[in-house]
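Suppose a colleague, Dr. K., hands you the sequence of a protein chain of 99 amino acids and asks what its three-dimensional shape might be. Before reaching for any lab equipment, you can write down a predicted structure in token form. Begin with the sequence itself:
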Amino acid sequence: GITMPKTALVPIANGSEEIEFTCIIDTLRRANVDVTVVSVHDTPMITASRGLKVTADEVISNLPACDWDLIALPGGMPGATNLSESQALSALLKAQAAS
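The predicted structure, expressed as tokens, is then:
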């Protein structure tokens, strides 16, 4: 039978660590996981911890309802703090934990 690809959401924020989110995204995509990178800010472009500007696939406020197989949170400061302050991300994580 045909199997649907696994899906993963990788939220990023200003200050996220470049190596952490890049390795997560790259590893998952090499495993044929359908990865969506989402900014927790109002714009898809974030400035990572070492100044690298990165454009996410989408902003979290425009994210369609979806059941993700995985939500992977990269570290790095102050990115982790910015992720933790996102109410939309918090709601997604709580829904993921409850499913």
